[in-house]
Structures are given as C-alpha cells and as structure tokens.
Amino acid sequence: MAATRIQSRSSSRPTRPIMVTIAACLVAVYAAVFIVWDIIAPFERSYAEGPVSVVLGFRVFGLSAQLMHALQLMVAGSLAYHLWKMQRFGWHLVVFSVGYMLVSYVIWAQVYNESESIVGFGLFYVVILLVLLALTFPYRRKFV
Q1: What are the backbone angles phi and psi of residue 49, rounded to the nearest 5°?
Q2: Does residue 10 lie in a domain region?
Q3: Which of 51, 80, 89, 108 could form a disulfide with 57 if both were Cys (CB 3.0 to 4.6 A apart)?
Q4: DSSP 27-61
Q5: Counting Cβ atoms within 10 Å, is residue 65 exposed (0-12), middle (13-18) or buried (19+)?
Q6: What is the distance between the alpha carbons of residues 93 and 79, in angstroms, rounded to a whole number?
C-alpha cells in the first residue's frame, strides 16, 4: 500500500525537461555571478561612486541600490527554484521577469539616452530574454 502511495505522488509530478533544467541553472549562475558580485563589489561606473541599480528604468544609488540587488537576488533565486521544481509560479516568474526587463529597459533607454550603453545592455538583455523564453516556453503547460 505504501508503494502505491509513493508511486501516485511521483507520477503526478511532471518530469523536468532538460531545457527547463538548463534555464534554472542559467538563472542560478546569473544570480550568483552578476547579482551577488554587484552586492559584494559594486561595479565602477563613471556616473556613481558606489552601488547603483536600475528600478523600473531609473537609477538608484547607495543603500537603495543594495536593497534592490537583494530583491533581485531573491527573485532570481525564486525563479531558479520554481523552475527546478516545475511549479507554475516558476512560469509566472518567467513571464513577469521578461515583461519587467523589457519595460525597465525601454524606460531606461528613454530617460538616460546613452547610446553606447543602451545598445550593449539592450543586446545583453535581448539575449537573456530570448534564451529564457526559448528554454521554457515550449514546456509552459507542464508547470503545475
């Protein structure tokens, strides 16, 4: 009887496709490399003497930036975890993150009008968004 109960639990949970596993791992690596690094050792920027982050397209500095980095780290960690567990919330976080990054980038590009940075960051974010969507979109209905 116990074997039947264990079998029914495991059969109700979908198996994680390799592409979703890759997406979860890439999000975790991104969080560890970019976000944690920016918390520990903020990148030098010509327009700031300390931590800087972008919130919905606008730059924030100092403690506010560090708090935003912590929030970004929590969202990225949650995204990786929920993708790994194939939970529906993971797919919702993918959609939210993609939408947020697009809106934030457009606002940032309009407000600061820095052509070199805008093109570089724009290409970087487009690649990130396309990879994340390409890896998860085909399996969106498998998230439970």
Answers
A1: -115, 65
A2: no
A3: 108
A4: HHHHIIIIIHHHHHSPPPBTTBSS-EEEETTEEEE
A5: buried
A6: 6
Provide the token pair at 134. Answer: 């390409």
For 1-11, what is the mean pLDDT? 51
Backbone angles phi, psi at 120, to 5 degrees: -60, -50
User: CA–CA distance from 144 to each of 67, 80, 88 (Å)?
Assistant: 31, 15, 5
The predicted structure's pLDDT at residue 113: 79
Q: Measured between alpha carbons, how far is 109 from 103 in angstroms, rounded to an integer?
A: 10
Instruction: Let me know if residue 4 belongs to a domain.
Output: no
- Distance (Å, whole) CA 115 – CA 109: 8
In a domain, 71, yes or no: yes
Give residue 58's domain range: 15-142
Rounded to a whole number of angstroms, the CA Rg of the chain reads 18
How do residues 77-132 score in pLDDT, each as one tens digit?
A: 999 999 999 999 999 999 999 999 889 888 888 888 776 777 777 788 888 889 99
Query: Would 20 be classed as within a structural domain?
Result: yes
Q: How much is the pLDDT for 125?
A: 81
Q: What is the pLDDT of residue 77?
A: 93
